[in-house]
Specification:
heterodimer; A: alpha+beta; Rossmann fold; OB fold (Dihydrolipoamide Acetyltransferase, E2P); 2 domains; globular; B: mainly alpha; 3 domains; two-stranded antiparallel sheet; binds adenosine-5'-diphosphate; binds magnesium ion
C-alpha cells in the first residue's frame, strides 16, 4: 500500500516547514508520501508537531514553506471546506445543538445531497459503527465511546477519500480504546479509505497501522511498518519510544562488516549489529529488546554472555519481568516466559544472561 | 451530607429477612436520612436568611406597599360616608342631578370633616381632583361655610361652583365611595368609566399611557437590537483572543459601569448636542450645512444612544462567557465537513451562544423598560419613557396612578420573564 514513488503518492508532504511564532520551527523539513488506501500513523511524544501536520493537511494551518499535495495537486491555497477530507477530532467536536442524525446529515446537506439519499447514507454510516439506534439522541446523551463512534461515522458519511484522526481514542478507557482500535482498523479495511492517524500511544500505532511515521522534534525519525519499526529501529529515539528496550552505552572498539564490538563503561565488551554508528572510536547506544535476552545460555549459541544479579522480580502472569544489574547497568530488564519449566529466581541471585548479536543494535549515541 | 451517608451502613448481617432497612445504630433508614437532610436544610436556610430578611425589608415590603397604593381608596368613603349612602339610590346614567338629600348629606359630611380633621378634606380634594378636573376648587368653595349653611343646599352649592350642577362629580363620588378602586388602572390604560358605568377609551387628546408603554417597548427593543448588533461581534472577537487582550477589551466594554452617571451624561451631551463635537465635525467636513445640524440629544436619539452605551455590558458579559466556552474545533469540524465559512458560522456556531443572547437580551430589555435616569437627562420630550411618567405621578398629586403604572410595568416584566423561562429556561441564564 505504501506508494511506489513520490508521483504515486495520494498525499505528499514535500519539504514542509511550519512555524507559529517566526522563531521556532515546529515542523522541520517534513517529507512524507502516503499511498492510496494506506493507514498511516503519525506517532510521537506530545509537542512533536503531529497535530500541526494534520492541521496543515486539513487546511486549518498554512505551511510556512513547502508543498502539500493531495492526489498530485498542491492544496496549499485550497480552503478546508473544499478539500473534502473527513476529520475526527480528539474531543469529537460533535455539534451539541444537533442530534446524532443531524450531525451526520450536516456534511451531506452542505453538499446538496437529496433527502432520501441522505437518510440512506446516514443509516448506513450509523450501522457501520453500531449506532443505528441512536440517531435521535443528542451528543450530551451519549457516552464517550458512543460519541467517538458518531464522530467516526460523521467523518465517513460523505465518503471522503481521506480521513484524518487526531488522537481520537485519547479520552476513552483502556478496554474501550482497544476495542475501538480494532473497529477502526476493520472499517478502514472494509472501506479502503486512506487514513492519517495521530497518536502518542505506540501500542495503538502498532495495532492499527500499515506504516508508522515516528515524530520527534518536528522531524520524522523513522517511517516503517510496525514490525520493522519494532524489530529494526534505526535510531536510539525510535528504539526507546517503541516498546520496551534495554539501553547500553559504550564506545565502538572495532567494526567488522555488518557487526561491531563495543566497550561499555564497566569494560565489558558487547558484539552488536552495526546499524547507525559513525565508525571506530565513536559513542553509541545499544538497543536490545528484553524478550531477546535469555537465561542460562551457552556462548556457542549466543554471542554475548554476561553474569547479572537479580534486583527485582515482577510477576505479570504470562511472563515474569526480571530487573537485573548487567554490565554495570541497573535497569537491565529481561522477560522470562512463565511456562511449566520456568526457572524460579530470587532477588540477589547471580545468573548468566546471553543474547545474539543480531538482536543487539548499535545506534546513534543520543 | 457525605458524613451522614457514611454512617448509614446497612445492617443486613442479622437474620435473613430484614423488614425495615436500618442504619448501624438501629434507626430506620428513612428517619436517618430525614434527620441528615434536615440538618443540611437548616444550614442552607441560615445561609440565605440574612439576604431574605434584607429583601423582605427593602424590596418585597415596598413592592407590596406600592401595589396597595394603586388600589387603596379611603378618602371618599371615610370623609363622605353620608353622601355615599344618600347617593345609593341615585341613577348615575340618567342625565339628572342627585336629589336635595344628597347635597344635604354632603354638606353635613363636609361640616363634620372640617371640625374633626382638616387634612382629610385636603386629601378628599386631591382624590376627587384625580378623577374630575376642577374638583379641588369645587370642594374648597363649599367646604368653608358648611357649618353655617342652611337649606336649600342644592342651589347654594351650584351657585358656589358650577361643577356641583353637573352629574360628573356626583358619579365619581358614588362610584369611588368604596375602599378599593380600579380607576387608576383604567387611567393607566387610557380608559375611563362612561356615565352608565361601562368602560370606554378616553378622548383621543387625553390618551397618554398606552402610547407611552408602546414607545417604551419600542425603544427597549431598539436598544436590545443595538446592543446585540454591537455586542455579538465584540464578544465573538474577545472569545477568540488570548485572555490578556480579551481582558483589556473587556475593560473598555465595562467602562460605562465605572464612570459616574453625571460624567457619562455630560460626555454624551458634549458629543451629541447641536454645537457638539459630532455636529461640528460634520459641518467642518462639509457633510452637512451649518443650518442642518442634527439634533441627537434631548430626544429619542439621545435616549437610544446613551442607553445602548450603558446597557452594552449586560449583553456582552453573558455572550462572552458563553462564547468562551465554545471550542474552536466546532467551526473547524464544520468547515472540514465541507461547509463554507458563512454556513459553518450560521449553522454550527451561531446556535450555540443563543442562551447567552437570550440571557443578555432579557436583561437588557427588562432593565430598559424600567430605565429612568438617562431618559430623564437626555431624552427630552420624545425620548421619555414610562418610568419618567411613574416618577412624575408619584412625586406629584396622583401617587396612586404612578403606583398603578408601576404595577403594570412589573406585570410586563414578569410576563417577559415567564416567556423567557418557557423558551430558554432560567437555568440557562449565564451571566459572566
Ligand atoms: N496555535 C499554535 N500557536 C502557537 N504554537 C503552537 C500552536 N499549536 C501548536 N503549537 C506548538 O507547536 C508545537 C507542536 O504542537 P502540536 O503539533 O500540537 O504537537 P503534537 O500534536 O505532536 O502534540 C508545540 O510546541 C506547540 O506548543
Ligand atoms: Mg496533538
Amino acid at each position: 500500500m505504501a506508494p511506489k514513488d513520490h508521483n504515486d503518492a495520494f498525499v505528499a508532504f514535500d519539504r514542509v516547514q511550519k512555524t507559529y511564532d517566526g522563531e521556532q520551527l515546529v515542523v522541520k523539513d517534513l517529507n512524507l508520501d502516503i499511498g492510496k488506501g494506506e493507514f498511516l500513523t503519525m506517532l510521537g511524544p506530545s509537542g512533536s508537531g503531529k497535530t500541526t501536520c494534520l492541521m496543515m493537511l486539513a487546511g486549518f494551518e498554512t505551511a510556512t514553506f513547502g508543498d502539500i499535495l493531495l492526489d498530485g495537486k498542491p492544496i496549499n491555497n485550497i480552503p478546508p471546506h473544499k478539500r473534502g477530507i473527513g476529520m475526527v477530532f480528539q474531543n469529537y467536536a460533535l455539534f451539541p445543538h444537533m442530534t446524532v442524525a443531524e450531525n451526520l446529515s450536516f456534511p451531506l446537506e452542505v453538499r446538496d445531497i437529496s433527502r432520501a439519499e441522505r437518510e440512506k447514507k446516514i443509516a448506513r454510516a450509523l450501522d457501520m459503527v453500531q449506532m443505528g439506534e441512536f440517531g435521535n439522541r443528542r451528543p450530551a446523551q451519549l457516552s464517550g465511546g458512543q460519541m467517538q463512534r458518531v464522530a467516526l461515522a460523521r467523518a465517513l458519511v460523505f465518503e471522503p477519500d481521506l480521513v484524518l484522526m487526531d488522537e481520537p481514542l485519547g479520552a476513552l478507557d483502556k478496554n474501550l480504546r482497544e476495542r475501538m482500535q480494532l473497529e477502526i482498523k476493520h472499517i478502514h479495511e472494509t472501506l479502503g479509505v486512506t487514513v492519517v492517524y495521530v497518536t502518542h500511544d505506540q501500542s495503538e500505532a502498532l495495532t492499527m497501522s500499515n506504516r508508522i511515521a515516528v515524530f520527534d522534534d518536528g522531524r520524522i525519525q523513522q517511517l516503517a511498518t510496525p514490525d520493522e519499526l519494532y524489530e529494526k529501529p534505526e535510531n536510539a529515539f525510535v528504539a526507546a519510544f517503541i516498546g520496551e528496550n534495554n539501553t547500553l552505552r559504550g564506545k565502538v572498539e572495532s567494526v567488522d562488516g555488518a557487526y561491531c564490538t563495543l566497550q561499555l563503561a564497566d569494560g565489558s565488551r558487547v558484539q552488536a549489529l552495526a546499524v547507525n554508528i559513525e565508525g571506530e572510536g565513536a559513542e553509541s547506544t545499544l538497543s536490545l529488546r528484553p524478550e531477546r535476552v535469555y537465561l542460562d545460555v551457552s556462548s556457542e549459541t549466543h554471542d554475548n554472555i554476561f553474569e547479572g544479579e537479580v534486583r527485582e522480580l515482577i510477576y505479570l502472569g504470562d511472563h515474569i519481568r526480571v530487573r537485573m544489574n548487567v554490565c554495570g547497568n541497573d535497569e537491565f530488564v529481561l522477560k522470562m516466559p512463565n511456562d511449566s519449566h520456568a526457572r524460579r529466581l530470587s532477588v540477589g541471585e547471580r545468573v548468566q544472561v546471553g543474547w545474539v548479536k543480531e538482536d543487539c543494535r548499535a545506534l546513534d549515541p543520543s | 451530607m457525605a458524613q451522614a451517608d457514611a454512617s448509614m451502613e446497612l445492617d443486613n448481617r442479622s437474620g435473613g429477612s430484614v423488614e425495615k432497612m436500618v442504619t448501624a445504630d438501629g434507626l430506620p433508614l428513612k428517619t436517618s436520612l430525614r434527620r441528615a437532610e434536615r440538618r443540611s436544610k437548616l444550614f442552607a436556610f441560615a445561609l440565605v436568611a440574612p439576604l431574605l430578611g434584607f429583601l423582605l425589608i427593602v424590596f418585597i415590603f415596598p413592592m407590596a406597599q406600592m401595589m396597595w397604593r394603586s388600589v387603596d381608596n379611603p378618602q371618599i368613603i371615610n370623609t363622605l360616608p353620608r353622601t355615599v349612602e344618600a347617593l345609593e339610590a341615585w341613577n348615575p346614567s340618567a342625565e339628572e342631578l342627585p336629589p336635595e338629600e344628597a347635597y344635604a348629606a354632603l354638606n353635613a359630611d363636609l361640616a363634620e370633616g372640617l371640625e374633626r380633621d382638616r387634612g382629610a378634606i385636603g386629601r378628599l380634594q386631591g382624590r376627587l381632583n384625580n378623577d374630575v378636573s376642577g374638583a379641588r376648587a369645587a370642594v374648597r368653595s363649599v367646604a368653608g361655610q358648611a357649618g353655617d349653611r342652611s337649606e336649600p343646599f342644592k342651589d347654594k352649592f351650584i351657585e358656589a361652583n358650577a361643577l356641583w350642577g353637573e352629574p360628573a362629580i356626583w358619579r365619581v363620588i358614588q362610584r369611588e365611595g368604596r375602599p378599593l378602586t380600579a380607576s387608576r388602572y383604567l387611567r393607566a390604560l387610557d380608559r375611563e368609566y362612561a356615565p352608565d358605568g361601562s368602560i370606554q377609551m378616553r378622548d383621543e387628546g387625553q390618551r397618554t399611557y398606552v402610547a407611552l408603554f408602546m414607545r417604551t417597548f419600542a425603544l427597549s427593543a431598539t436598544i436590545l437590537g443595538l446592543t446585540f448588533l454591537l455586542g455579538f461581534p465584540i464578544s465573538y472577537y474577545m472569545a477568540t483572543l488570548p485572555m490578556r487582550y480579551a481582558n483589556l477589551l473587556m475593560i473598555f466594554v465595562l467602562l460605562p459601569f465605572w464612570t459616574s452617571l453625571l460624567v457619562r451624561t455630560s460626555a454624551w451631551i458634549v458629543l451629541l448636542q447641536q454645537q457638539g463635537v459630532i455636529n461640528s465635525t460634520l459641518v467642518g467636513l462639509g457633510i452637512i450645512g451649518d443650518d442642518q445640524r442634527l439634533s441627537m440629544v434631548y430626544n429619542m436619539t439621545g435616549t437610544i444612544v446613551a442607553m445602548t452605551h450603558i446597557l452594552l455590558p449586560f449583553m456582552v458579559l453573558p455572550l462572552y462567557s458563553v462564547m468562551r466556552g465554545i471550542p474552536p474545533s466546532y467551526m473547524r469540524a464544520a468547515k472540514g465537513l465541507g461547509a463554507k465559512p458563512w454556513t459553518a458560522f450560521r449553522r454550527v456556531y451561531f446556535p450555540q451562544p443563543l442562551p447567552g443572547v437570550a440571557a443578555g437580551g432579557v436583561l437588557v430589555f427588562i432593565i430598559s423598560i424600567g430605565y429612568y435616569i438617562t431618559p430623564a437627562l437626555v431624552g427630552g420630550q420624545s425620548g421619555r419613557m414610562i418610568s419618567n411618567e411613574i416618577a412624575r405621578h408619584i412625586q406629584g398629586d396622583n401617587p396612586g396612578l404612578g403606583a398603578a403604572i408601576a404595577t403594570l410595568l412589573l406585570v410586563c416584566v414578569m410576563i417577559l420573564y415567564w416567556v423567557y423561562n418557557r423558551l430558554v429556561g432560567a437555568d440557562n441564564l449565564k451571566l459572566g
